Amino acid sequence: MQKRCSAIFGRLLALCVAVLLLAPCTGAQAGWFSGDDTEPLKDYKGADAGRLVVSLGAYRGADYAFYRLFFRTHDKSKMAQVKYTANQPFLPHRYTDYSDDIEAGDVAVWALAPGDYEFYNFEIYYAGGMVQETFGSKEDFSIPFTIKPGKTVYLGEFRAMEIYGRNLFGLEVPGGAKFQIFDEHSRDLPIAKVRDPLVGEPEILLPDPAAIKSPFFQRLP
Predict the structure, then answer these.
(1) 170/21 Cα distance (integer angstroms)
(2) The pTM is what?
(3) In whole angstroms, what is the distance from residue 80 CA to residue 70 CA?
(4) Number of domains making up the chain
(5) Model confidence over 131-165: pLDDT tens digits?
């Protein structure tokens, strides 16, 4: 019995050490994102529906399994997400909407009721051995957009760039990501129109990273 308890304690101790070695000590803005209890937002079926088109991707070489951007209605009563699942060694190879030597990602199309919305947080999932981490913003931000009857709005590509933190031993470990915003409508709109023939010529409204006022969105040179 004593040997069995010692063996269990040894495994638990090894697990704790592994977590300490791999867990990042990130800045005040990075941390767990628990989501909320809002009602899921579904595709709107009304004749006055507008379309949201946005793409989400990541630079090659990142260690994360999936990326999510959350958006919600202006009154915060309903929420939805845009998701990109990256190809990982432990996941079967999957098709992505676009891919090259620099990046890969997916294009999302949402049919939404006319009104005001905002992107407000993100979630990035990391799985490395016995350690699993979810990164997001501790404080919500706001990327507002308006859906007009029968119109399409394009918010650009949100491209995740991996950032690193330090664990308690000073070792470099994955620490989340920052997002760069690009105008890739010439690539994304044809993909969106195949997925939803009611996608029209869009109003292109790329968010200004400075206006988001979050350290996770980067202004390009």
Answers:
(1) 9
(2) 0.78
(3) 6
(4) 1
(5) 678 889 999 999 999 999 999 999 999 999 987 66
